[in-house]
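idk why but the lab printer keeps eating my pages so im just putting this in chat instead. protein + nicotinamide-adenine-dinucleotide:
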Amino acid sequence: MNILITGGCGYIGSHCAVVAIKAGWHPIILDDLSNSGEFVIERIHEITGVRPTFIRGDVRDATTLKEVFSSWEIDAVLHFAAHKAVGESVEVPLSYYHNNVGGTLTVLEAMKEYGVKTFVFSSSATVYGEPKEVPIQEHSPRNPTSPYARTKVIIEDILADLTEAEPDWRIARLRYFNPVGAHESGLIGEDPRDTPNNLMPYIAQVAVGQQERLSVFGGDYPTRDGTCLRDYIHVMDLAEGHLAALDHLRGNEGLLTVNLGTGTNSSVLEVIGAFQKASGQDIPYEIVGRRPGDVSAYWADASLAKQLLGWRAKRNLAAMCADTWRWQAANPSGFRKPTEARQHRLGLDSHSQT
Ligand code: NAD
Ligand code: WQD
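predcted complex ->
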């Protein structure tokens, strides 16, 4: 069983590749490495004993896609390839629409041409915007507030139109909440190219001394400790959710839309506390002004995924922090310096930087 994983060298795609291999799939990874590196392929091999097929290419390139679909009999597609930074999408919206929407169209057109009709799409809780009610259910109104979020809404709508016109497609729109954590081996994890925008990778960089201190954006929200509440989900749980969605699609044509979250929430201060406990490191922080655009609290109603997919997140915040720490401590500079990083792999107590 061959599965095309676009963006499979990235954070979530690489973890899904590991889980897919364990479930008996052979991954064909198509990635242009615009936000990742080829080292990931080696690491997936090291974890699983299987080397995924890797093609360096852009999902917007129809010729590359034709080559892929004509060279392998593809059974399903996991489509991760996209730009994902909310703030950047405000600055360069055309790049976001072109890559995210344009890339998805090219993939779908190639699939149609080759008669491949099983497609799993990385959507996001960001499609909901500021929710009217929490926890958020799948039928809650979508209210995107950034170009990035609008790319996800547009693609969701394209997928709905497609299944309406051609009901034999099997499509999952998976709305991820806040993916964090890393594979328990510490061999793969999140590796932001620049200063991290997101909370967990920032904390992890403070813990290894790559950043001096964390700025906590806002301490005056109407929440239990004044900081924002989010539904952090372990990336391995998320990856297993994709496999559960694929199983579901095997038996069901049409469109599936589910939240992938834990159904619980944590505040920024709780995440800092859990990370300090898991790592034994002090995380210096200061509370600063609110970050524009942040919503005070949102988390998933995760019951539909349980009901339809038989899936639920199993790993708690302590595991998310412990696994992030294992990855970051072993790879203080991410994938970029593999030799030095490997020396640190088992030295979780060392605080050294490469
Ligand atoms: P990532 O940047 O780590 O991975 C995306 C991968 O796609 C990268 O390896 C990048 O090189 C590749 N890529 C980008 N454009 C490409 C193109 N045109 N052709 C080929 N490859 C391309 O991001 P991630 O965190 O793993 O996110 C994966 C997906 O999940 C994205 O669609 C993202 O929008 C979505 N998502 C992510 C989060 C999150 O917080 N990480 C939350 C919700 C949804
Ligand atoms: C979490 C909390 C921040 C950094 C984003 C995207 C969303 C989705 C997931 C893709 C917030 C606070 C953060 C920092 C902080 N991605 N924070 N200091 O904003 O909930 O969601 O990632 O689809 O679309 O918007 O995640 O990790 O950035 O923030 O205090 O240095 O941590 O204010 O309360 P967010 P995040």
